[in-house]
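Form 7-S
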Amino acid sequence: MTPLQKSILNAVKRRPMTLRELQNNLQVDNSRLRTTVSAMVATGELSMRNGTYVPGFATYENAAAPNTIPCTLVKLAARFGFASRDDGEGDIFIPGRALHGAMPNDKINVKLFDHPRVEGSSEGEVVEVTVPNNRFAGTVCLSEDGRMAVEPDGCRDVKFLLAKQGSEGVHLGDKVGFLITHRGNRHSDHRAAVVEKFGSSDYASECAKAILYGRNVRQEFPPEVLEEAHAYDNAVIDPTEAAKRLDLRGIPIFTIDSAETKDIDDAISLQKLEDGYELGVHIADVSHYVRPGSALDEEAYERATSIYYADKVIPMLPTQLSNGICSLNEGEDRLAFSCLMRLDENGEIRSYKFVKSVICSRVKGVYKEINALLEPEEGADLTELKTKYEAVLDQLPAMDELYRKRLVLRKARGGMDIESNEAKLVMDENGRCVDIVKRDRGTSECMIEEFMLLANQCAANAGRTNKVPFVYRVHEAPDAEKMEKLSATLLACGLNAKFKNPIPTQLELAALLDETRDQPIQIPVHTGILRSMQKARYAPQPLGHYGLVLADYAHFTSPIRRYPDLAIHRILSEMLLGASASQLQKDFNEFAQQASEKSSKQEVAAVRIERDVEDLYKAEYMHNHLGEVYTGTVAGITPRGVFVELENTVEGFVPAAQLCKGEPQVIDGVSMLDPLTGKSWMLGSSMKIQVAAADVALGRIDFEYMVE
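Output:
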């Protein structure tokens, strides 16, 4: 910094100054002053505010925050980035020139600006990269001067030149995994080397591989884990262990899942009594096989969840357990952890107990088939199905009856049923997406969900009332500010959404959900309510579940694919053996805390991967339907344009420039008006569109508005 630059900076630190005031203060040539000030604005050392100059974003001094703030860079674009504070106090905006080459998932130290460009915002500069992240996935492209480069996924318009060594055989448009081999002070100075080649970015399957690589997903099991898993090759249960357990093999227990499910971790049984029901929810006893301190347990803890995408799964446990000895396969004896519940004639829980058991599933039930039996179509021939389900057929009417009673209770307490518009991707033999079908939930899907909810509720109650360490599934009440915005949006949609208190009751929200169900406005309303909620997570404290309106809730029913379930199986097992609360606290307090934090983090990552990969396959499917015309529903409105959702759950973007001849006006976030033509589009309204573009690599679909 030159002496004149230092003098200018010291002057504006004392108070904001106009150019004339600077000239009078410093007594310097006007032309030279103007040139220097312009250069300092360009480099961020000065900023203009209300006609005066103040210190800019490249000025480190900040008396209110003298120390740097540990952060993680979470988003990067060509001209800006966002850093998430490690203390959880929100995000910091980082202008492009203040990034100094920092990359997503870098651990960084950030210095807040004394004078952010937007009053009241958090803006800062990266002053140090403490732990660099150099592993990325991306798409091979050309630099501005025509050389081979790579654009990292999620970092549009950020490009790194590729080193020649290792990039042989790489073509434009390929998806690759790469390492940053040299870092400069700017992103344009970084250099990269290809270490994995996946294939063309025109194919969703190759782009999916790149996503998994770029996000460090553990796909292969380490040798020590596989070695432990091989002990269960073609395994059968230990007769000595079975003899110690409650033998339920004489009860007609069965499973209900999707036809393609191979990791079956829950089974059910039901007996109707004179004064109610006895419901059995029988869960694979994974904790018997996955012991603390084993390589299997350590790997399951790190993964925390299975990841399901397209027609593939990245399992939490090796197949010898997930599809073998732990899976409740038809006709095979299995060790289980059973929740046996007594419910009264109205479906209310009266008592429950947890027992270690041995079971044998009579039949592998399939949702579609059970639905056909529960709600037969007129004239349908069910002879074959009735033969298949003969051993358990007489339980189905009682199960349906109990489910209906439970549904009444759920509605009475305000349990929310949010339509999520899940999609089923149909793949061909080459792994290409050839169809997208909206996944409809029938009676059997809802019935099994309700029975699993009951067992989960009992498990959490056992943990809370016995005052033992536990991993709860918690969903806290929504934020009042978000609810205020939601209320304003819904009122603008013409709905009666005036809540009595800042935070609405579940009954109020459930009424809105029901009012708009199967209506054109359903998609934006249900999505809006969902996005206004807190995210469900795992916690060692029993904080309750707002959405389900339950004081007690945990995840007990899926230990093959979720670590929290396995964790509480382990704790409940020790309770059954008679361990005292004090001993359990000593053994599991830290474990419950760590398992909650790790599982919450991994769940968020897994959900993001599943959604992002689904977007790739949807774009792949729509790429084969370019030029075709559909009618969709307006699901989102922004100043840039509108999002339209099709019947098959595919969502695409229509730019505002196609809709409006004049400057578009967005009203209350629910409608867009063209002031020149008077035309308007509102959330929930239908729109005729043509598929204009589908970028598989970005998972992005663009629609063109078709004037009707």
